[in-house]
């Protein structure tokens, strides 16, 4: 149990227009901060007014990118309750990220407590308009000023909150995806399974190149053979081929694919509805299998999964500048998964899996 101190803000911000929230544009009045010092461990957990933090120019994270983060949301139900979705999964994933990056591990209970207490303080910031939510961004970084590649003697663990709009103000919309054949996101033995800042820095170039060609995101192939399908942008990806679902294997603490909370939830939903899901190492889908399935008319649906969008249906897939999948309609399985998961998250449907946690 953390003993969190509270520092009151002199003045609170005006809340933004709920119909125009966008993503990551607004931040709430408070943030959670906790230091970690070598030999001392975590100290001074606090909820303080949201404000810039001072950085020594020699601060380790600015040079060697020792940083990890998480992404989750708080949802407001129609009857006024505030819900978190499987927060302990984010806590455990944060631990595996930090373990790989040689950073201190926040105990699961402390992570969930920090998030919960901050959301409780900021309850009025959880937007109520349909499909809006409060995005939660926990993160940690090396704060000690010191040049030289090594683990640090001082880290900061922080949580900030941002009210965000509906990802699809006009309903689910299919996206155009480009299969990247040169650049890779992650390799076996690297940091693919972690949410560390460096993974994203190195992905920006491929993203920009895809945008120049008129696509909105990149489909990543594995970094060893450039053959197996891994992820789409910052989402996991699933395909429905001949009635069955395929998704790349993703395990906590290993491999090159990020084990998404949404991915895991979708797999459980799909299996509960009787779908066969192929998600093991042996069943990995190659780009050739995918091209073949598309050619034979067996590729029925393709979609990305992640906390921000929940489901991102793929309308167009192109490889080596040739479109091989073009399906502007939302598939029935994509729509069913979107409706079921968002129904559970916003408290409209019965939570049979026990995934939601009320912030009281
Ligand atoms: C965050 C993320 C995901 C999705 O994870 P969720 O827990 O479902 O939000 C997938 N892939 C990458 C690379 C990510 O960063």
Can you offer a commentary on this structure?
23% of the residues lie in helices and 29% in strands. The chain has 360 residues and is of the alpha+beta class. The chain folds into 2 domains: 5-164, Aminotransferase class 4, branched-chain amino acid transferase, N-terminal domain (D-amino Acid Aminotransferase, Chain A, domain 1, 2-Layer Sandwich), CATH 3.30.470; 175-345, D-amino Acid Aminotransferase, subunit A, domain 2 (D-amino Acid Aminotransferase, Chain A, domain 2), CATH 3.20.10. Strands 1, 2, 3, 4, 5, 6, 7, 8 and 18 form a 9-stranded mixed β-sheet that branches. Strand 2 (30-37) and strand 3 (41-49) form a beta hairpin.
CATH homologous superfamily heading of the largest domain: D-amino Acid Aminotransferase, subunit A, domain 2
What is the CATH domain class of the largest domain? Alpha Beta
Major sheet, described briefly? Answer: 9 strands, mixed
How many angstroms separate the termini? 17 Å
Q: The CATH topology of the largest domain is what?
A: D-amino Acid Aminotransferase, Chain A, domain 2
Strand content: 25-35%
Count the strands? 18
Average of the residue pLDDT scores: 96
Hetero ligands: pyridoxal-5'-phosphate
Would you spell out the secondary-structure blueprint of this structure?
Layout: E1 5-6, E2 30-37, E3 41-49, H1 60-64, E4 67-69, E5 72-76, E6 82-85, H2 87-100, H3 108-121, E7 133-142, E8 154-164, E9 175-179, H4 197-201, H5 204-212, E10 217-221, E11 229-232, E12 235-241, E13 244-247, H6 261-272, E14 277-278, H7 287-295, E15 299-306, E16 310-319, E17 322-326, H8 332-345, E18 356-358
Parallel strand pairs: 1-3, 9-10, 9-16, 13-14
Antiparallel strand pairs: 2-3, 2-8, 4-7, 5-6, 5-7, 6-18, 7-8, 10-11, 11-12, 12-13, 12-15, 15-16, 16-17
Helix pairs in contact: 2-3
Residues 71, 195, 231, 234-236, 258, 260-263, 305-307 line the site of pyridoxal-5'-phosphate.
